[in-house]
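B., you asked whether I could sanity-check this one before it goes into the benchmark set. Here's the sequence:
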Amino acid sequence: MKTLVPKHIAAVSMMVVAAAARTGMADQNDGSTATQDDRRENIITQSTLSKFRVFTTTNDKPVKARVRAYYPDKGIVAIAKESGKTHRVDLNTLSKDDQDYVREWHRIKDFFSQDRFHISVRKKRSGAGAEYLFCRFEVEIVYAIMLENRSDYDLEGLSVDYCIYHGQEELNYWGQVMSQGVKSGTRNIGTLARGEKVQFETQPALFPRSDGFEYYQVDKEPRGEILGIWIRTYLPLESGHNAMRELSFPSSLMKTRKWIAPDAPSSQNNWKENQQ
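And here's what the prediction gave me:
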């Protein structure tokens, strides 16, 4: 059943909807006051785990190698030289700085492992967007992000940044175009104890309904599409560095899109790229 709405009311309604959508795009931090802070500096990525380092033993003998494995219950660390030959040494035979490095390496190795620190996302509809006189003009789509700590350590000071990339049909003087944009946000997680998991939802992406005047037919498809989500997770370390793990759904998204920080100027956050 369709509800008839006078044209002048419909016009006002669509103006209200457009204003609400613009406001939603500007509100990008999920209520957080996070800015460009220290967590995005001194970054350690997964590639850091395989870098070579000059280790110093207690007798001051330097060895250039990289960590292959650490067995905390035995206090043994396996290091590989540039030749590829692997040696197992007692952690206590290394310098204090090297011991701290090995322990930190072991902690962030789990952070970068999908098996040990599991991150999953699910796209869903949430709510129905703007409403006027029992008619709903928008569809609201969000991502549910799940973090699960399967490691042997508590992950302290966790935070997540994300970018949601979307396309939306628009009409201009030349006809119909697909306008592409990104909405970014941040969420402070805090401590995620071992064995625990946490889930939160991103900010919504709002799309006009294919027929805004249809009465509560929530199965109508929106005029637009979600292109994907890019996630960066941060873990502060005792060394003053910050481990950053990033992934996207689909995985190809990071190769074709530009990362927009959550505290970027709104003009940059709402970039558009019109295609005929």
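One thing to flag: The chain has two domains: 7-42+116-269, 46-111. Otherwise nothing jumped out at me.
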